[in-house]
């Protein structure tokens, strides 16, 4: 089985079995899975939203697509729509959105970014009436998740470390 490392700002859609690994701090990953067709998708958004207009008539790809939670969700849902997957059959899972103080001070993501990312994802899920079947969000924990695109299974570990520290540990093996 192929092993995919998903970095911040990336998005993956799988039509064959794969194992997707990603590490989350204040970022969020949203997983879409369709059981019968064995289709799985996962994003890793750093920021909640920005001003861009999705097309209603086709699949328009935003320049900063993967970075933004809302754009990633619009794209993933449109992709499943074009495959004829009924929205009522989609399983949606949401992870991450930690309150990473150390990260924020070191530059980067800003206090409250985790919560804003989660709020944006939840608002999208509610407004499209999607089924949220699992979530693990907030708190001071970095998370490592592994998504199996053929079964929808998620393995999740929480760490009392920043995502950057965790990345370093991962690279060491
Ligand atoms: Zn956009």
UniProtKB/TrEMBL annotation:
Pfam families: CheD. GO terms for molecular function: protein-glutamine glutaminase activity. Probably deamidates glutamine residues to glutamate on methyl-accepting chemotaxis receptors (MCPs), playing an important role in chemotaxis. Belongs to the CheD family. PANTHER family: CHEMORECEPTOR GLUTAMINE DEAMIDASE CHED-RELATED. Keywords: Chemotaxis, Hydrolase. Its EC number is 3.5.1.44. It catalyses: L-glutaminyl-[protein] + H2O = L-glutamyl-[protein] + NH4(+). The keyword Hydrolase applies. This is Probable chemoreceptor glutamine deamidase CheD. The lineage of its organism: Bacteria, Pseudomonadati, Pseudomonadota, Magnetococcia, Magnetococcales. It comes from Candidatus Magnetaquiglobus chichijimensis. It comes from the Bacteria. InterPro entries: CheD-like_sf (IPR038592), Chemorcpt_Glu_NH3ase_CheD (IPR005659), Cytotoxic_necrot_fac-like_cat (IPR011324).
């Amino acid at each position: 089985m192929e092993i995919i490392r998903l970095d911040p700002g990336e998005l993956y859609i799988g039509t064959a079995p794969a194992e997707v690994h990603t590490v989350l701090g204040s970022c969020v990953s949203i997983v879409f899975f369709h059981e019968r067709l064995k289709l799985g998708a996962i994003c890793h958004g750093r920021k909640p939203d920005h001003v861009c207009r999705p097309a209603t008539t086709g699949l328009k790809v935003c320049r900063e697509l993967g970075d933004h939670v809302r754009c990633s969700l619009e794209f993933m849902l449109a992709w499943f729509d074009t495959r004829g997957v009924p929205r009522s059959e989609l399983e949606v899972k949401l992870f991450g959105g930690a309150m990473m103080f150390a990260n924020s001070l070191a530059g980067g993501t800003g206090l409250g970014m985790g919560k804003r990312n989660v709020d944006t994802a939840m608002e999208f899920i509610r407004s499209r009436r999607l089924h949220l079947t699992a979530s693990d969000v907030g708190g001071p924990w970095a998370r490592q998740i592994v998504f199996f695109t053929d079964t929808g299974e998620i393995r999740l570990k929480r760490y009392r470390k920043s995502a950057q520290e965790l990345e370093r540990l991962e690279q060491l093996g």
